[in-house]
Design a protein that fits this description.
Layout: H1 5-9, H2 26-41, E1 50-51, H3 53-61, H4 67-81, E2 87-88, H5 90-93, H6 102-105, H7 107-112, H8 119-141, H9 146-153, H10 157-166, E3 169-171, E4 178-180
Helix pairs in contact: 2-4
């Protein structure tokens, strides 16, 4: 390597402050990353989700020790797991502090959203949310290889496919990422004659 290469490239040094020192940039960056990863990981035409005001406040108040890359990864995670057209809440972001896990970062956040529901409804929603997030993480980790995903989870492939079917998920043939299952197009019904017989 040429010894003078650094000085040839170093023309105008630019000092960029860390993300935590410029919170006014966070909403714009978050919207950009959300749009980018939604298009990348979801079906064409799927309604975009929206960051709620509370989610934006949570993003702006986070420490971002990992700088822009941490924000980028957090938004990509959301783009993979949230339902199309929904409003993204702070608990969907799974922001954690140093040494915290997503489950302990804000233990009251999820519970507070369930207090108005019955026990069975709240339990079913938590289980459904866990299964959906786990399946998405599992298949993505396995690179779309369903046999490998089943081995990691300790279940057979039939169980894995049944769970994905239940939550409207499928593996993208092109990328291997988990995506929303496209709704089936109903077959046109044949007209019925006066006597009740089908007419061509």
């Amino acid at each position: 390597m040429r010894e003078d290469l650094y000085y040839r490239l170093r023309v105008v040094p630019i000092q960029v402050p860390p993300l935590r020192d410029r919170p006014e940039d966070i909403p714009l960056l978050a919207e950009y990353f959300l749009s980018t990863y939604w298009i990348r990981h979801r079906n064409k035409g799927a309604p975009f989700p929206k960051l709620s005001d509370a989610a934006i406040r949570a993003l702006c108040g986070h420490g971002w020790r990992g700088n822009v890359r941490e924000l980028q990864n957090a938004i990509e995670h959301v783009a993979v797991i949230v339902e199309p057209g929904t409003e993204i809440r702070p608990e969907d972001l799974q922001l954690t502090g140093e040494g915290e896990s997503p489950a302990t970062a804000n233990p009251a956040s999820l519970i507070s959203t369930l207090l108005e529901e019955s026990y069975h409804a709240a339990r079913d929603r938590v289980i459904a949310q866990f299964e959906r997030q786990y399946l998405t993480w599992l298949v993505n980790r396995a690179g779309g290889n369903m046999s490998k995903a089943a081995r990691i989870a300790g279940v057979d492939r039939t169980t894995l496919y049944r769970l994905m079917e239940r939550h409207g998920l499928q593996r993208s043939p092109s990328t291997g990422w988990v995506i929303e299952r496209e709704p089936a197009i109903p077959e046109p019904s044949l007209p019925v004659g006066d006597g009740g017989e089908l007419t061509p």
